[in-house]
């Protein structure tokens, strides 16, 4: 199966597992990692609202926990007619494990609505190289 179709179906399936009883806004994410495997995540909310985590954070945690280190492509999905884009914190999380050209596919349940590079989503991002100076 085409990789983007695979990312779409895995993210959509994972979206259905979201724990979103407060916002009722379910989000799913699927990463193609440098080991050619797919890692998924969904948002997990909490009665103590700031303890909730985003779908992208869950997918990245799964990727790292399983020994992969780089995002090749990522797809984020929500059941919304509007274009859903990753929040600011998740753009920074994605950038940490990407190159500037890494593609971020933005989807709703009907299909992919837009594809952007992480540098388009997060221009002038904080550069970890700065920490080494
Ligand atoms: N959410 C994500 O999972 N990813 C994003 O990039 C944006 C927001 C979740 C967090 C919260 O559970 C719900 O969407 C509403 O903000």
Keywords summarizing the entry:
133 residues, alpha+beta, Cytidine Deaminase, domain 2, five-stranded mixed β-sheet, 4 helices, 5 strands, 28% helix, binds tetrahydrodeoxyuridine
Structural commentary:
This protein is α+β, with helices and mostly antiparallel strands and about 130 residues long. It has a single domain, classed as Cytidine Deaminase, domain 2 (3-Layer(aba) Sandwich). About 30% of the residues lie in helices and about 25% in strands. It is built from 4 helices and 5 strands, in the order αββαβαββα. A 5-stranded mixed beta sheet has the order 2-1-3-4-5. The longest helix is centred in the first third of the chain and has 13 residues. It is globular. It starts with a helix and ends in a 12-residue tail after the last helix.
Layout of secondary structure:
Elements: H1 3-15, E1 27-33, E2 38-42, H2 55-65, E3 71-78, H3 88-96, E4 103-108, E5 111-117, H4 118-121
Parallel strand pairs: 3-4
Antiparallel strand pairs: 1-2, 1-3, 4-5
Tetrahydrodeoxyuridine binds at residues 20, 23, 25, 27, 43, 45, 52, 54-56, 86-87, 90.
Describe the structure concisely for a colleague.
This protein has 133 residues and is an alpha+beta fold.
The coarse overall form would be globular
**Alpha-beta classification:** alpha+beta
Low-confidence stretches: none
Estimated radius of gyration: 14 Å
Bound molecules: tetrahydrodeoxyuridine
Helix/strand order: HEEHEHEEH
Strand content: 15-25%
> How many domains comprise the coordinates?
1
In the CATH hierarchy, what is the class? Answer: Alpha Beta
Q: Supply the CATH architecture.
A: 3-Layer(aba) Sandwich
CATH superfamily: Cytidine Deaminase, domain 2
Average pLDDT for all residues: 96
Number of strands: 5
Helical content class: 25-40%
Task: Measure the end-to-end span.
Answer: 44 Å
- Strand arrangement across the biggest beta sheet: 2-1-3-4-5
Most strands sheet = 5 strands, mixed
Enter the CATH topology name. Cytidine Deaminase, domain 2
Q: Can you count the helices?
A: 4
């Amino acid at each position: 199966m085409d990789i983007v179709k695979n990312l779409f179906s895995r993210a959509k399936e994972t979206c259905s597992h979201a724990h979103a009883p407060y916002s009722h806004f379910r989000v799913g994410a699927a990463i193609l990692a440098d080991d050619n495997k797919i890692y998924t995540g969904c948002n997990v909310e909490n009665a103590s609202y700031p303890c909730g985590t985003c779908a992208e954070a869950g997918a990245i945690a799964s990727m790292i926990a399983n020994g992969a280190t780089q995002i090749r492509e990522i797809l984020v999905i929500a059941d919304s007619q509007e274009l859903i884009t990753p929040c600011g914190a998740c753009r920074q999380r994605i950038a940490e494990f990407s190159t500037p050209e890494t593609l971020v596919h933005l989807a709703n349940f009907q299909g992919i609505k837009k594809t952007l590079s992480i540098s388009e989503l997060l221009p002038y991002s904080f550069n970890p190289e700065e920490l080494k100076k």
